[in-house]
Amino acid sequence: MDKEFIQSLEKGLTVLRAFSRDTPSFTLAEMAKATGLSRAAARRVVLTLQSLGYVGTDGRQFFLLPKVLELGYAYLSASGLSTVAQPHLDALNVTLGEACSVGVLSDHDVIYVARAQGQRRMTTAMSIGTRLEATCTAVGRVLLAHLPDEELDAFLADAPFTPFTPHTVTSPDELRGLLAVVREQGWAVVDQELEIGFCTAAAPIRDAEDQVVGALNVGMHTARVPPEEVVDRVLPRLLDTAGAIGLKYRERRPA
User: Fold this and answer.
1) pTM for the whole thing?
2) What is the pLDDT of residues 3-24, one digit of tens each?
3) Which of 221, 207, 225, 219 is nearest to 112 (CA)?
4) In 159-180, which positions are buried (b, 16+ CB within 10 angstroms) versus exposed (e)?
5) What three-state secondary structure class fits 116?
6) pLDDT, tens digit, 9 for 90 and up, residues 55-96
7) Among 17, 173, 237, 255, which has the highest number of CB atoms less than 10 A from its own CB?
């Protein structure tokens, strides 16, 4: 292991990431099991986080405190992408009447950093900070399609490929072929791979050096917008809005 690597910091971040919507609190024994840490190590980490104000306790269960929001807010304010994107998302949401999001890649997931909620919600609750597997989302495919070959190879080698629906692509080779098409055409449409009855389309957001820094997504119920109509009805506005967000982002962060 790299001598500069701080294992205690890794353990602290592992504990923080263990908390979620489904598991908002843990006992020490549960935390040790969830993180793979020994109970003694989990105890030291949790008590340190408690002392720093990131974790609270009722004497048995440990839970996150609002101070952890400072960590996410630091990224959002430093990046500027969410701030720049939000008014464009709101306008696109009004125009299309559908949920719109901006996402970035994090490990094997997409994390949503800006969101305008549509009138019809997915079964999967989504908000800023939601993580979804990149392989089966339109945002993820746009971002993966623009990775350097070496990084894409590493991603595909250990991506989870969870079969969320019968339509989910679970073959690395098949996904690689789809990503080549996405890269060439400049957008992605994913039909019912994450949730039955739900289709998404996404387009890249580029910085001043023409690098893809995020992707804009529109999510639609197939009963309202059939997948075969997405290209004609949704894609032109999606591409225009992604371009407008990229332009504003470049003005804020010049090369």
Assistant:
1) 0.78
2) 788 888 889 889 988 888 788 8
3) 219
4) bebeebeeebbeebeebeebbe
5) strand
6) 999 989 999 988 887 777 666 666 678 889 999 999 999 999
7) 237
